[in-house]
Design goal:
This protein has helices spanning 2-10, 18-23, 28-40, 50-62, 87-94, 110-116, 121-130, 134-151, 180-206, 213-222, 284-389, and strands at residues 99-100, 154-156, 166-168, 228-233, 236-243, 246-250, 264-266, 276-277. It has 398 residues and is an alpha+beta fold.
Length: 398
């Protein structure tokens, strides 16, 4: 609904109430009424015209659903405007708004294009559901036929053959022995289905963004300069336009509501990494605003850093004071500890000196005792020698 309303606003086909413009808000029921009136103005409201009456009924029933999105069914090989025609598509026709998508298969990929030809997204999903086990069934049948080859019921054929991978030995075969023919045929069909399934699955995986480069080129070729339309992708609707040969999408994300310089987004690749432009389709306004925003953010960061530095300085001062107190307390403890250590050292020194004096005294005493004993022993020996000399006879017989 938003994309369609923006197209009509840019065309000046509708106007918003002044009160809504002032407060930059509009109620859903108000927007539905405006959109319905814009359609009714372009429809023949003759009650005898059954087709016109049906259009009105479709609009009344469909418009409220637009707030929650619509289910559109794109076709992969029918160009950027290829959708399954439903009442949801008819409402855009009533507004004379063209619908576009870029989820297209490239004809140069002949096999994928052939398998996707004529399919819509919903049909492809149904196909995936129906054939979800085709690869498994093919594997089971291949194993079964390999056993038949081993038993001699069938034999392999030329591997270059494109029609069959195996050949049944039919010469002289009975009715029962002809049954492997059906198995070979079924296996061939399963292999073809499995190949198609895997090719389609590869396309879906490689185009998960729901936009292909071929689709992008087709959008460029289909949209005229300064035209407006609605672009459908990933269940989202965007207002699309073409300006000077470039495609743009109107930016309506709430995250950019405060970035008035960002108005359009260039659509020039499929991965979503695009440039933003202002209302004049120029990047200058965006760049200038971003530079201003960057400067503001830098100033804010500087202010925060400055305040943090001041807070750190205050905390450091408080920590220094507390730390000094801890140092003083430790010094006092150390001082007391040093006094105790000194007293103990002095006591040990005194004890050592006393022990040393006692040892020296004992050594001197021992030396004196030894000297006295030596002197006494010498005196005794002298007396003995003297006594022996006095008892010798004085006469000699001649």
């Amino acid at each position: 609904m938003l994309a369609a309303a923006n197209v009509l606003l840019l065309r000046k086909a509708i106007e918003l109430p002044e009160a809504c413009v002032l407060i930059k808000q509009i109620r859903l029921d108000q927007l539905v009424t405006i959109l319905l009136e814009s359609v009714l103005d372009g429809i023949n409201t003759d009650t005898e015209n059954i087709e016109s009456q049906q259009q009105i009924n479709d609009l009344v029933s469909t418009l409220p659903k637009l707030s929650k999105g619509l289910d559109l069914n794109p076709k992969f090989t029918a160009g950027p405007t290829g959708f399954e025609y439903t009442v949801n598509v008819a409402i855009f026709d009533a507004w004379r708004i063209d619908l576009y998508h870029g989820w297209l298969a490239d004809p140069q990929n002949e096999e994928a294009f052939q398998f996707l030809d004529g399919l819509t997204y919903n049909q492809l999903m149904d196909k995936f559901v129906e054939e979800s086990d085709v690869v498994e069934r093919m594997s089971v049948m291949e194993n079964s036929l390999e056993q038949s080859i081993h038993d001699g019921i069938v034999e392999p054929v030329d591997p270059l053959s494109s029609k069959h991978d195996m050949e049944v030995v039919t010469e002289g075969a009975s009715v029962e022995e002809s049954e492997p023919n059906d198995a070979v045929s079924k296996l061939s069909d399963l292999r073809q289905k499995a190949y198609i399934y895997q090719t389609l699955q590869k396309f879906i995986l490689e185009s998960s963004s729901q936009l292909t480069y071929y689709g992008l080129t087709q959008l460029h070729e289909t949209l005229a300069n300064d035209s407006l339309g609605v672009f459908f992708r990933n269940d989202h609707f965007n207002t699309i336009t073409k300006r000077d040969g470039k495609l743009y999408l109107l930016v309506t994300d709430e995250g950019y509501s405060n970035s008035s310089e960002i108005v359009w987004e260039r659509l020039d690749n499929i991965d979503g990494d695009c440039d933003y432009v202002d209302s004049a389709f120029s990047t200058q306004g965006v760049i200038a605003q971003r530079e201003l925003q960057h400067e503001r953010e830098l100033q804010a960061q500087i202010a925060v850093a400055t305040q943090r530095s001041l807070n750190d300085a205050v905390e450091a001062n408080n920590e220094d004071s507390s730390f000094q107190q801890q140092i003083n307390a430790q010094l006092e403890v150390n001082k007391n500890s040093e006094d105790a250590s000194l007293a103990m050292a002095m006591a040990l020194q005194k004890k050592y000196e006393e022990d040393e004096n006692e040892r020296v005294a004992r050594m001197i005493q021992s030396q004196e005792y030894t000297s006295a004993r030596t002197t006494q022993s010498r005196a005794v020996q002298s007396r003995r020698n003297a006594s022996s000399s006095s008892t010798t006879p004085s006469c000699v017989i001649s």
